[in-house]
TrEMBL record, chains A, B:
This is Propanoyl-CoA C-acyltransferase. Keywords: Acyltransferase, Isoprene biosynthesis, Transferase. InterPro entries: Thiolase, Thiolase-like, Thiolase_C_2, Thiolase_N. The lineage of its organism: Archaea, Methanobacteriati, Methanobacteriota, Stenosarchaea group, Halobacteria. Pfam families: Thiolase_C_1, Thiolase_N. It comes from the Archaea. Residues 240-382 form the Thiolase C-terminal domain. Residues 4-222 form the Thiolase N-terminal domain. It comes from Halopiger xanaduensis (strain DSM 18323 / JCM 14033 / SH-6). It is an enzyme of class 2 (transferase). CDD domains: SCP-x_thiolase. GO terms for molecular function: acyltransferase activity, transferring groups other than amino-acyl groups. The keyword Acyltransferase applies.
Length: 385, 385
């Protein structure tokens, strides 16, 4: 079967935006068309990754509105929701649309508009993805993160500082990303002394609430070659669920969705963890970067923190740079956009277009986590030039 | 490429249900597994067609909850939203998941829970799919239907009674569908004297607000043959948008999404309108049955009403029975479930399992309309036994 290529990408400024989600989607969509050199009338399928425009704005049907706004009618549209991994699910949907032969040119645009809500209102929308039995007891996503972090630190004898170092690293990377929400370095002391949110995790262990959009253009490799000599292919992709009721999992430090989707993506691509040159992981909470490093085979269980301490995941000096974009931590986390933006970063790295963030990479990986690992999508991308 | 087969189906009782959407999805999902003879652990992809569980219930992530409820973890899940055509979009997503080789066993479950809301609250959620510029002027979906119906009747010199006859026919068919919300015949006089909603359309020209769920099991034909000797294949499927701003369309009686998705489905299947033996059309409003008959080539523009008057679409005596299930009009319209339930009816007809509703059919078609034709999915199914 012919491979699926990515021939263009875009990302709006992330942060607090004076625009509705449709404006953000249109901005990213139009920029992606231009970046790929594709005419809107050639787009056959248009997927929109978005968790909750209805809840955030009282506006649904944004995928149909987008088709008209960017002049892509009568392209087929669909909204993809997989909560906080809607972006990764969108990549999988777009990949399937091309790989099945249904579309020879598919654009994926992910976006979310959140900052017009108070933090309480926004977290209420996000918390609606948890199981009612847990939600009613107040166990929201940050609570799960705090409980898991405490367990991890004690069980694996890891220092609290190792978690803070994830935040320090990702903030440092974000300084060089002009699209990131926060472009400022933070030191270890700042993280460790920030207000407690879910003990032992503090404010700087959490990603912010963000507005933003990102887009990718996908097509069969044979079509890609009509547009460009240099492109990226998706060599592996898979998604998997874990129990929706988080407390029913056997080991709180193992995210089954990460493990299973990673195994699927490695198998499909013929790659293994050692082949990965750069990765974007879903650092919604610092502890998640450890769990994904271990679930994806970059570290043994309970040992990811050592690699972080050793500088293994640093951008300029590490063996496996993680979250060169700044991650969700510094770049921001507009739910439906995040998984797409992860792939935009890897695309730019593989194309050699990452500017001051550039690392040496031929093979990259993204891992997008829905809920607290309730569903996870892992994607492996490779330079094809 | 190998064809995609349907090997099982299910549908819950439609109507006013004392259950949340997750309960309805689980009920349909478990019944579909049993009908197909498939173990939950063999389901690789699980798609949930649902427009608005967040808005209706304050509950999102239902696809992940469903995976656990029916014991399908770690199956990949995704929620498919295409407003009122979410069910049809789910069929397209499930088809792509199998046709792309990503999954050898995909279950699609569509569902919506609406009746706990007042009619005003429910229509507010539905109206959120329209363009704000039109919505602010009060032009909701029923208004579009009324305006279009008035235009159609005057332009094509069609009698008001012809629209009412759609409702009479579909109610008559629904009497024989034990899962339908309304199982009672209505006469022409009742329809014509029911309260005006959007002149010239009256209460009985509209489908009700409904709770319900429906499911399908899809797999490659080679896998289907391991499970059963008799199955159905999806021989053609396509989706297309029209302008999101309805008043910008050139001809209000032509739904471009219907025309384009129909052409795509016919071309893929090698079929034409004359080959279709039975069809489920999206009769959210009676006028829509005319527009789809014409857009899909069953009638010339402006002449569908004549076929209805002649009895061409009657179940037991007509040449092309339309909405043998009772249609949205009598069966009910739980948004995310409706497109799936249309395919469930065609599946049962092609399998010879439609009981008192059975017609003689080898090739069937479904047309699922999102918004006021903002996005439409047409599917052609054929008996493969």
């Amino acid at each position: 079967m012919e491979r699926v290529a990515i021939i263009g990408s875009s990302m709006t400024q992330f942060g607090q935006r004076d625009a509705w989600v449709l404006d953000l989607l249109s901005e990213a969509g139009l920029e992606c068309l231009e970046d790929a050199g594709v005419d809107a009338s050639d787009v056959e399928h248009l997927y929109v990754s978005n968790m909750a425009s209805g809840e955030f704005e009282g506006q649904t049907g944004v995928m149909n509105a987008l088709a008209q706004d960017i002049d892509a009618v009568p392209a087929y549209t669909q909204r993809v929701d997989q909560t906080s991994s809607s972006g990764g699910a969108g990549i999988y949907a777009a990949w399937q649309s091309v790989a099945s032969g249904a579309s020879d040119m598919t654009m994926l645009v992910g976006g979310e508009k959140m900052t017009h809500k108070t933090t309480g209102e926004a977290t209420d929308v996000i918390a609606s993805l948890t199981h009612p039995a847990e939600y009613k007891h107040g166990v929201t996503l940050p609570s799960f993160a705090g409980l898991t972090a405490r367990h991890y630190l004690e069980r694996f004898d890891a220092p609290r500082e190792s978690l803070a170092k994830v935040a320090v690293k990702n903030h440092k990377n974000g300084v060089d990303n002009p699209k990131a929400q926060f472009r400022k370095e933070v030191d270890l002391e700042t993280v460790l002394e920030s207000p407690i949110v879910a003990d032992p995790l503090r404010l700087y262990d959490f990603c912010p609430i963000t507005d933003g959009s990102a887009a990718l253009m996908l097509c069969p490799e044979s079509v890609a070659e009509e547009y460009t000599d240099e492109y990226v292919v998706i060599s592996g992709i898979d998604g998997a669920t874990d129990t929706h009721v988080v407390h029913e999992r056997e080991d709180p430090t193992v995210m089954r969705g990460v493990v299973e989707s990673g195994e699927g993506a490695y198998e499909m691509s013929g790659r293994d963890p050692d082949d990965i040159d750069v990765a974007e992981l879903h650092d919604m909470f610092t502890i998640l970067e450890f769990l994904q490093m271990e679930g994806l085979g970059f570290a043994e269980q309970g040992e990811a923190w050592k690699l972080v301490e050793e500088g293994y995941t640093e951008r300029d000096t590490g063996e496996l740079p993680i979250n060169t974009s700044g991650g969700l931590k510094s770049k921001g986390h507009p739910l439906g956009a995040s998984g797409v933006a992860q792939a935009v970063e890897i695309y730019e790295q593989l194309m050699g277009e990452a500017g001051p963030r550039q690392v040496d990479a031929d093979v990259g990986l993204t891992c997008n986590v829905g809920g607290f690992g309730n569903c996870v999508i892992t994607t492996i991308m490779e330079a094809a030039q």
